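ugh finaly. both done.
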Amino acid sequence: MRAFAKSDVGKAREMNQDYYYIADPTDAIQVFILADGMGGYNGGEVASKLATTTALSYIQSNFETIPKEKEEILNLVKSAMEYANMVVYEKANTNANLEGMGTTLEVCLIYHNKAYIGHVGDSRIYRIRKEFIRKLTHDHSYVEKLVKDGTITEEEASHHPKKNMLMKALRMYCLCRTRCYH
């Protein structure tokens, strides 16, 4: 497997609030993490780095102690994300300059050719096999909800004025989704 990361500040922001971790191919467990700080709020870059490093540390510290079964690994990913949420929340509450900070968080742990993913926010995880690309996550955004409810079309969603408004993220409301893929 090959992994690459590229980050861009985008068109609307002055500061890049992305943070990621890519496992070294020699690492005992393969973990890949992406966090995108919430633009427009204080400390998005702090939240994304803190969430990434906290989730990674949690997984690395606890992986060896759990049974290597599907549900246990998914629970580890979920617990890592919930712990990262708590750390980001506490950091935001201890510093007035970081009040309201938050981030999306994507975690992918690969073990025995299975990908265990955790997702919260509007960053995405895709699976690429040969020439096929499949989106594995769904955005936790207001506009995605409108599309799902049938209120607007996919075309309308791409131009909607609230297309970047999140419904779930770390620090706001962490209800992460976890799944396993072969």
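ok and the 2nd:
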Amino acid sequence: MRILVVEDEVILREGLSDLLEGAGHEVVAVGDGLIAVERGVGEAFDMVVLDWMLPRLEGPEVCRRLRLARPGLPVLMLTAKGDERDKVDGLHAGADDYVTKPFSPRELLARVEVFARRLKAAPAPAEVIEEDGAALDLSRCVVVRDGHEEALTAREVGILRWLWRHRGRAVTRAELLEHVWGLSPNLETRTVDVTIMNLRKKIERDAKAPRLIVSVKGIGYSFGALR
């Protein structure tokens, strides 16, 4: 499996990476909540091992945001908070399982193996969106149009995932900032508009007359025209 490890303690983060890689998994390890949201939304992972206490954005909020963007992504919460209320809060935030520090490496691997068996039993469908002559392969981070393949960045894939998941309604710039970039929705910036302008050049038949990512005046963007 490809696993996102989110842990701010360097020694533990490296230990988790070694443990999971030794069991044959591919690991991406980060130590910051906002970066975790960006990577988790924009890239393909089979599960997340998520610490509770993190810089900038705590584990439960990271979990909530990942759940909104990737509902089927399993999350294993890993934390020193062990009382019943904390466990319930973590599960309510969307965690699938809960391990309290200090933990047994064998127990952690056993719990990860449960998710691996579920994945093998019910593999997720390929994340390919085919619209207006373009094939958007989100799992591979590429777009194919007219036989030409071009790479997409993690943020571009995150935008596409969010817009596709919420197709049929307008998505605000603030929403994209919060759930794709992991930034404050109150931040005044043209980052979203600039990124979407570059994304349109890659995926649209005509970037000046977009049909996939459509501007909604006074609000933001939608995937396709709203009816």
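summary for the 2nd one i guess: The CA atoms of residues 78 and 103 lie 9 Å apart.
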